[in-house]
Amino acid sequence: MKPIAKSNKLANVGYDIRGPVLDKARQMEEEGHKIIKLNIGNVAAFGLEPPDEIVQDMIRNLPHAAGYTDSKGLFAPRKAVVHYCQEKKISGVTVDDVYLGNGASELIAMSMNALLDSGDEVLIPSPDYPLYTAVVALSGGTPVHYHCDEGAGWLPDLADMRARISPRTKAVVIINPNNPTGALYPVEVLEGIIEIARQHQLIVFADEIYDKTLYDGAEHTSIASLADDVLCLTFNGLSKNYRSCGYRAGWMVVSGDKRHAKDYIEGLNMLASMRLCANTPGQLAIQTALGGYQSIKDLVAPGGRLARQRDLAYSLLTQIPGVSVVKPTAALYMFPRLDPKIYPIEDDQQFAYELLAEEKVLIVQGTGFNWPTPDHFRLVFLPNTDDLTEAVGRVARFLDHYRRRHGT
Prior knowledge:
Blueprint: H1 20-30, E1 36-37, H2 52-61, H3 75-87, E2 98-102, H4 103-115, E3 121-126, H5 131-138, E4 142-149, E5 155-156, H6 158-163, E6 169-175, H7 187-200, E7 203-207, E8 232-237, E9 249-255, H8 262-274, H9 280-291, H10 296-300, H11 305-318, E10 323-324, E11 333-334, E12 337-338, H12 348-359, E13 361-362, E14 364-365, E15 377-380, H13 385-405
Parallel strand pairs: 1-13, 3-4, 3-6, 6-7, 7-8
Antiparallel strand pairs: 2-9, 4-5, 8-9, 10-12, 11-15, 14-15
């Protein structure tokens, strides 16, 4: 029979967080091996549960959640998002500017599909959360990666961003707080990005899904709060701050100068209508979450579980010869560097395979985040301290063997 091939649209689409190394890990698990997974920010898998008031509110409302809602979502949770925008000092947001989605991921894809024609370019950070590169390519656009500077705490290189703008550039993506690096962008960097967007008439897509997962007393600034003359689309949701990944409850806010974006907004409305609506139970969790006790603050405070695990992972990794790490200010990840003189890695996916095979630890290689050289990997510091100590100890043992094999 004639083979059935996948669409050519997928030729430049990848998502290595759930890629071939994970497939190998699943095979090993089926064979009876126990794998320590440091590859994905699925918080529930590590015993971090959503606040009980969210769960109970969803249970109470579930009998009334069987019908479709408005294509943008229920009024009450959208109004709660408006109030949240006011807290974040994002001006001019009304209920009509809020779209609820099956997680922020659906809305990110929707926003790109509504915007891009073949060959249109979008500036995306390197390293990135690979969904952005994938959905830009799938939408017919061309991902163009700007450099984030490890030496400057993984902040965007604004000169490099400017240099990559062309007549086809439509938008710039920022991920703040950042996945995979854990960087938090200061106001002066955000203002620099706004000025670039203003000068070149770019849309700003701002992923702020980790805006409450902040350490050491850090504060987050929404880029949309810094200008009302630039069109901004801000993405957020319950997955991380409220440990509710599986509820698929996210939102997108359109703010700033909407006068010249009526046609684009009409496209967003069309796509929102085509998917009918976001899942209703997930929508019902949003108002309760935003208005309730913010238990994430306890987890990230000094001595809180996430803060302890971050500090432990940083301490253990930086004790390994040839490994350096920028200590994360936010989010759930760090992006360690392996000194190429000590670890001459040519194929970092193969490196991840070997670590998995020898030590049964699953990580994601740095090139999976569109980092150009095979000298980084992302580590998720969600396991409890005992499991994290064991996992990083296995990584250290593997790297010791790697150095010996390569005579460095």
